[in-house]
Fold this protein.
Amino acid sequence: MNFAMWTNDIDECQCPQAGFCEFFRQEMTYDPPNWQWCQNATPEERGEYKISCDKKHDRKNFEIKGRFLTVNDLIEDCKNHLIPKLGELELKGIAGVPRSGYLPASMCALWLNIPLYSFNSSGDFCPLSGRSQFGGQRMKDFEQKKGKILVLDDTVYGGKSLAEIKKILKNHKQVLYGSLYVHPKSLHAVDVYGKELPPPHLLEWNFFNSAYIQHAALDFDGILSPNVPYEVCQNEADYINYITNVEPLYYRIPRTYTCKGIITARLEKYRDITEAWLEKHKIKYGFLHMFPTEKQEIRDKNHVVESARFKSKAFTDSNAAYYVESEPAEAALIRSQAYRLVICPDEGKYG
């Protein structure tokens, strides 16, 4: 068998001790003695084992190609891809499709300085009035123009939801239908769109309250609550007070579904405080893995590397499809060790 595709690392074991092996992409342990086996194995034996490991990873991995779209992506794509097309249309208003369709609809109506509408199940359009018939103070002198109302959603995938909306609004002739993002196979369903978006993809604005969260393991600090300030970490009393009373990041709290679990580099000795905080804020989760207290000194010497190693192993051992990590540096390490899907919202992508 030709093993030329690999480097000379295959000729001899590169791991000075048991632990995670980058070459085999798994833990090499003392018991069972697979690290000792690798120390004495021939290049051919390592090659065969490498193949079997890769096949195992291929079976286990939840592979997904695509993008994690952030709210910033939505704003920029509205501005750069949808607004130029809408500017060429004769529109008298935009009606958002509840609820996420109101995000692009509101921005586009604001930028184009036209009314924002809602519609009800009876098929009636209603301008979102406030201080004036068509909105705020800036719209008090607005004179309604001729044109069509654009019914706008954030995404159109198969087109079924949009088809139902068309039935509701069937008596309106002066209506256009659009979406910021559209599946390439559903372009026929809309009159105007911003960008094609082939599947699969995840959307930051609804991810934490979508069914996807049932398959996700979450980081704690930086995802469910703000990261603890460095100066607070230097004093245990201050640290305990902080993690006891910190407000959550409300926009990332799973409210509809239970997340698969939480994997955090917080020390195990703070479990009671952490569990009480989670209960206080009604966060539903399957498991809670915390960093072993007895290994605190090791973690603190190289926090990023040791935290990533701990999270990677816990993630790999779980049956979670993906992990949501707050720190880009740790996310990169977890990806390289777990070879599984890691989302980093602040990084704006996943892999």
